Amino acid sequence: MTLHHREAVGNRFDPASMLRARSLSWTALHAIRDRMHAGIGEEEAKTVAAGVFQELGMERLWHPPIIRIGPNTIKTYRQPSIPDVRLGENDIYFIDLGLVFDGHEGDVGDTFTVGHAPERQTCAQAARDLFTDVAAVWRREGLSGHNLYNYANERAEAMGWRFNHAIKGHRVSDFPHSVHKGGDLGDFENRPSSGLWVLEIQIAHPTEPFGAFYEDLLTDAAPEGARQHSETLDTH
């Protein structure tokens, strides 16, 4: 298969290693989730995350862990968090990881709730559902990255959520993917190849200050582990 020049990879690139990095990244994300609790702050959660990474033998970060709580869940990765926000008894948060295992990049993200927060839980699930919908359209119809994000925006609005247009997905590969300069998925005018692009979805409540985030690698067939992670109940 001939790749577009924006899908260039390095000499070490191995599709199986990409899937392994993805799987280990999901393992890390859920290990962090298991350690989240009411009262924890974002910086404390990042310290917890560092311990998880060490336990899993992570090689390095390719982007720092992003953990957003409550009103910070509507922030993009470039926007600083409101300081000193802590997880409430009935609240929402998301985890966004960019980890390197065996020289390959994993990038995963998901949103969870604690306590009794049905509207926030609905938002978290909506981000997962929208990801699943958009990924299925990519597999079925072969849409370009640009058209995938147009579709995601239309579906988010139809579902009753605000879509974050600043989040457009991106390339991953053998580290560092930035050498290959793949750019944003949302600006890619071709059909994205399997195993090279991360689809990012971020939505927000139309009037309330909370939102949800979900991201994963676009693959022709999602591994069973990734599906199990997506289907896990998000209250604890």
Automatic annotation (TrEMBL):
Highest taxon listed in the record's lineage: Bacteria
Protein's name according to its UniProt entry: Aminopeptidase P family protein
GO terms of molecular function: aminopeptidase activity
Chain ranges of the Peptidase M24 domain: 17-186
TM segment ranges: none
Species this protein is from: Dyella psychrodurans
Keywords: Aminopeptidase, Hydrolase, Protease
InterPro entries hit by this protein: Creatinase/aminopeptidase-like, Pept_M24, Peptidase_M24B
Lineage: Bacteria, Pseudomonadati, Pseudomonadota, Gammaproteobacteria, Lysobacterales
PANTHER family linked to this entry: AMINOPEPTIDASE, CYTOPLASMIC PEPTIDASE PEPQ-RELATED
